[in-house]
Write a structure and sequence with these properties.
The chain has 283 residues and is an alpha/beta fold. The protein folds into two domains: 84 residues, Leucine Dehydrogenase, chain A, domain 1 (Rossmann fold); 126 residues, Rossmann fold (3-Layer(aba) Sandwich). Helix content is 43%, strand content 16%. It is built from ten helices and eleven strands. Helix 1 runs parallel beside helix 10, helix 2 crosses helix 10 and helix 6 packs across helix 10.
Length: 283
């Protein structure tokens, strides 16, 4: 039976440290959050971010848009936020509705305010091994692996995700830490081929957003499984991983909810504080 990686406990430790840091700052950090559409999972995440930010001393500014908002309207708002000196960091809640060019919107955010680290300039710096900021999901993965004393040097990692941005940023960082990234690109392989690829992995990281698709057939005994997927159905929240089945063979596993979610928020807040300090260090 797998050991559970307790994301809630790890997140609380990070946030406790941030509370102490923020009390020493001359002003409170400010975070702008952009939410487009009415996806239940996105609304859930934004509500959690606002609530937790308030607890630790970060002021949030929510900009909400309907599903039928035009890309031009959203970009106009991004430009306004970029020029607002009060705002230290910007979070764009993904995914965006289909009519938007996600890369275009992400890259419209000022690189120095990009909390997720997805801006092209920040991805370039990551590739060079000199990230302006650690992408929250990369931070989550590294923190979780460290918490179980998992050295990733020469470990085979399967990173399953729809997003090229996610693959680039997180994949590059893991590779720079010495991991061997497997070519298990989700969506480019048939299920049987994907299973064979994933079963080679010492660590599986999944961020697909498909309820319980990752079954025990994908996992070799003793592997670490990190589930970033989140699917909201009514009042229930599910992950990519068939937890009951996979937990019988994995060495360590993250639950949904209570795993990656709280950690992602905590690591995003850590970035807001880092961006605030970088900004004020140059003044």
């Amino acid at each position: 039976m797998s050991k559970i990686i307790n994301g809630k406990l790890l997140a609380e430790k990070i946030k406790d440290g941030l509370v102490y840091e923020i009390t020493k700052l001359p002003t409170r950090p400010n975070l702008a959050i952009l939410l487009v559409g009415d996806r239940a999972d996105s609304q859930l995440y934004v509500t959690l971010k606002e609530r937790e930010a308030k607890k630790i001393g970060i002021d949030t500014h929510l900009y909400k848009f309907d599903d039928d908002t035009s890309e031009a309207e959203l970009l106009k708002c991004v430009d306004f936020i970029n020029k607002d000196d009060l705002i230290d960091g910007v979070l764009l809640q993904l995914p965006l509705p289909k009519q938007f060019n996600t890369d275009k919107v992400v890259n419209a955010i000022k690189a120095e305010k990009d909390v997720d680290g997805f801006h092209a300039d920040n991805l370039k710096k990551i590739k060079q091994g000199k990230p302006f900021i650690m992408p929250p999901l990369a931070g989550v993965i590294l923190e979780m692996l460290q918490s179980i004393n998992q050295n990733i040097q020469d470990k085979k990692i399967a990173l399953l995700a729809h997003s090229d941005i996610f693959m680039q940023g997180v994949g590059n960082i893991l590779e720079q830490k010495g991991a061997k990234m497997l070519n298990c690109a989700y969506g480019n392989k048939q299920a049987a081929e994907l299973m064979r690829c994933a079963r080679q992995a010492d660590i599986i990281i999944t961020a697909v957003g498909k309820k319980h698709y990752l079954s025990v057939d994908y996992v070799k005994p003793g592997a670490v499984v990190i589930d970033i997927g989140i699917i909201k159905e009514g009042k229930e929240t599910y992950g990519d991983v068939d937890f009951d089945g996979v937990s019988e063979v994995a060495g360590f596993i993250t639950p949904v909810p209570g795993g990656v979610g709280p950690m992602t928020i905590a690591c995003a807040f850590r970035n807001v504080v880092e961006i605030y300090k970088k900004k004020h260090a140059t003044k």
